[in-house]
Amino acid sequence: NSYFRYKDGVLHCEDVSIETIAKKVGTPFYLYSKKAIIDKINEYKEAFKDYPTIICYAAKANSNLSILKIFQENDIGCDIVSGGELYKAKKAGIPSNKIVYAGVGKTDFEIEFAIRENILSFNVESYQEIEVINSIAEKVGKVARISIRVNPDVDPKTHPYISTGMKKSKFGIDIDEALNIYKKAMQFKNIEIIGVHCHIGSQIMSISPYIEAVSKVAELVDKLKKEGIELKYFDIGGGIGIKYKITDEPPNIKDFANAIIPIVKQTGLNLIIEPGRSLIGEAGALITKVLFLKDKKEKHFVIVDSGMNDLVRPSIYDAYHHIMAVKIKDKTIKADIVGPICESGDFLGIDREICQVERGDLVAVMSAGAYGASMSSNYNVRPRALEVLVDNNNFKIIREREDYNYLIKLEEEVIQ
Ligand code: LLP
C-alpha cells in the first residue's frame, strides 16, 4: 500500500527506512503509519458525514495508548470489551459519551467501573446481564444506559472463529426473543434502554450480510416502536474486512455507508459503528529479522526472530499475511517463514515466495496492525515486541521492549 513502499530498494514506512528503525530499536517490532490511520479515520468520517453517526473504534484490534490517543485526537469513540480497555480508553482521553461496552461476560467489578465512568451504553448480551447491571446501578445510585445486542442469524461468510451473528453463536439475544426481553427490561428503574446492537463477525468481504442483518434489526426497531419502546441508537458493530492478500478486495467504506444508511434512516435512529480492523489493520506491519536459513529436502525454512507469541493469527485462524523482504533482491526463494517457538503451528507464512534473504536481513509481515500486538503473549518467556509509530519522516517508540525483569516481576515478589 502507499504507506509501506520501496525506495532505493529498501522498504519504507512513510518516509522512514525500516532498516534505519531496526538499527535503532532492534527486532522484532510492530510498526504503524500514523498517516494510514488518520486517512482511514477520514475515509469513515467522510462516508458517514451526512448521517448522525458515532464512530467507536474497537479497541481490541489495537489498544496501544498512543494509538488510542490518535483516535481520541480525531474525535473517535471506543468500543470496549473489558475493564482494562475502559481504563486505557479513559487514559487516552476518550470521552465517556463515546464509549460502548460489549461482551458476553462482564464482571460485577467491570460493570460498576463502567457505570461510574458513565459510558454511553452497555451492549448487553443476556437478560441476566440486564438484571445485574440494574442492581449494580441501583447500588451506586445511577441509571445505566443499555442497548440490547441481538443476534440476527446472518452468515457473514468469514472464518467460523470470528463469525458472531449466527444462531449457534454465544453472542447476543436471538432476534425472535428480543421483543420480549425489551419489554421485560422496561421494568427496571436503574436502566435506560437507548438502543439496539448487532455485530455479525469480522473480516467480512462483502456488504450483503450487513444489508441482511441491518434490515432484520430495523424490522425489530419497528416492532418495538409499535409497542411504545423508543430507541435512540442503532449500533451495527464492526467487521469490515481488509486486504491481507494482494488480490483481496475488501468493501469500500463509502459503498458500505451508502448501503447501510438508507436502512437505518428509516428507523430514525442515530447510527453507531464499531470498526476495528479496517481502521488500523493495514496501517501496521510486524518487522522481524532472519536468524537462520534451513534447507530440508522437502522445504526451505526462513527462521525469524518473531513467532506466534507476537502474531498468533496465522497459527490460530490459518490467516494469511503478505510477507516481504525489506531489501529488494533480484533472486527470489520459496520458503516457510517460521518462528522460534517450540510448536509446529508456529509459522507466519507457508510456501511463500520472497526475495532472497540471508541471516540478519529484515522481513515485513504486512497488515498486522489489528489483532497483532493486542493478541501477543509471553509464551516461551519471550518479551513482547516493541512498537513504533511513524509520522512522516519521524518515528517514535510507543511501547518499550519488555525486559527479563518485567517478565518475572509479578512472580519474583511472591516466590516461595
Ligand atoms: N464490535 C464487536 C462487538 C466485536 O466483537 C468486534 C470484534 C468488533 C466490533 C470489531 O470488529 P472488526 O471491525 O475489527 O472486524 N482476533 C480476530 C478478530 C476477532 C474480532 C472480535 N470482535 C482476528 O484476528 O481476526
Q: Give the second-level CATH assignment, the architecture of the largest domain.
A: Alpha-Beta Barrel
Which molecules are bound besides the chains? ligand LLP
User: What is the CATH class designation of the largest domain?
Assistant: Alpha Beta
Total separate domains: 2
Instruction: Supply the CATH superfamily name of the largest domain.
Output: Alanine racemase
Q: What level of helicity do the residues show?
A: 25-40%
Strand content: 25-35%
CATH topology of the largest domain: TIM Barrel
Structural class: alpha/beta
Global Rg: 23 Å
Distance between the termini: 52 Å
Number of helices: 12
Indicate the mean pLDDT: 96
Query: Which overall shape is indicated by the principal axes computed on the Cα atoms?
Result: globular
- Poorly predicted regions are none
Labels describing this entry:
DAP_deCOOHase_LysA, nine-stranded mixed β-sheet, 416 residues, 12 helices, binds ligand LLP, 2 domains, TIM Barrel
Describe the overall structure.
By secondary structure, the protein is of the alpha/beta class. The chain contains 12 helices and 21 strands. The strands form 3 sheets. Strands 4, 14, 15, 16, 17, 18, 19, 20 and 21 form a 9-stranded mixed β-sheet that branches. An 8-stranded parallel β-barrel has the order 5-6-7-8-9-11-12-13, surrounded by 4 helices. It has a 3-stranded antiparallel β-sheet with strand order 1-2-3. Helix 5 packs across helix 6 (about 125-140) and helix 8 (about 210-225) runs parallel beside helix 9. The longest helix has 19 residues, at about 210-225. The chain starts with a strand and ends with a helix. Bound molecules: ligand LLP. Pathway: Amino-acid biosynthesis; L-lysine biosynthesis via DAP pathway; L-lysine from DL-2,6-diaminopimelate: step 1/1. InterPro entries: Ala_racemase/Decarboxylase_C, DAP_deCOOHase_LysA, De-COase2_C, De-COase2_CS, De-COase2_N, Orn/DAP/Arg_de-COase, PLP-binding_barrel. One of its GO terms (biological process) is lysine biosynthetic process via diaminopimelate. This is Diaminopimelate decarboxylase.
